[in-house]
Every structure is written in structure tokens, then in C-alpha cells.
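Note to self: keep these together.
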Amino acid sequence: MGQAMSRIGPLKLKVMLFCGDVTAMGPGKADLLEAIEREGSISGGGRTLGMSYRRAWSLVDIMNRCWKEPLVKTSVGGGARGGAQLTPFARNLLRAYRDLEGQLMQSAAGAAFYEFESELLASPRPHAPGGELDAVNETRRSPARGG
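Structure:
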């Protein structure tokens, strides 16, 4: 959900909220919360996003420590007794975060952006051998310059 909302053509915005120097919420953490909600566990949520359990747990731990209330509650046990779920606070926070992403994208997709977009190539031109960058790199490798 988040990736589709945070990109319009070549424009991509990445909304990050900080708690001190630590990212309390960003697109990856929001995606992880959504995956945990779907899968019912931290390991399952992380697995669907291609991350290890340790990485997923670390991100959940950071989020739980950065907000006034925990975002993910875990319960010990196998099968239906164990797992993880988002708290009501987390669901509200996640909804607000996704709304903020959408509002920022709508604001950014205005005349100033379209002026950039009209001048931007669809992909980079191929590198031209012998071009200006080759001359600069050759000078750097030159024995006379100690390269």
C-alpha cells in the first residue's frame, strides 16, 4: 500500500518521523506493521517483506520504544495462542501515517513538480566513451598525478 502511494511517476517522497536520532516511523516500518497485522506474527510479517525475524523484531522494538504507547503486542505460545497483533493505538497511528503520505504526495504533485518532470529523461543516456568524464578519470589515473 505504501509504495504505490509514495510515488507519482519519477517523484518519490519518503515520509520519516524521528524520535531523537532514531526513525520512529517510515515507509518500511509502516509496511512491516501492515504485514504483522495480515500475518498475525512478527516473523510472518518480516518474512513476507524478505527480512529476518531478528530485523523485524528490532524494528518493532524501536517502534514500541518511540511512541507513548506500544504499537505491537506479542503473546507467547505456539499455534493460535502465540503471535503478535497491532494495538488500537498502532492502527490509528498507521492510518494517520498513510493519510500524511497521501496528503504530501497530492501537495507535491503540482506545477513545480511538473516543470521538473517535463525536463527529465525517461532513463539516463548511455555513457559516451571518450567523453568528458573519461577525460577526468584518465587525468586522475595519470602517473604524472601519482594515480
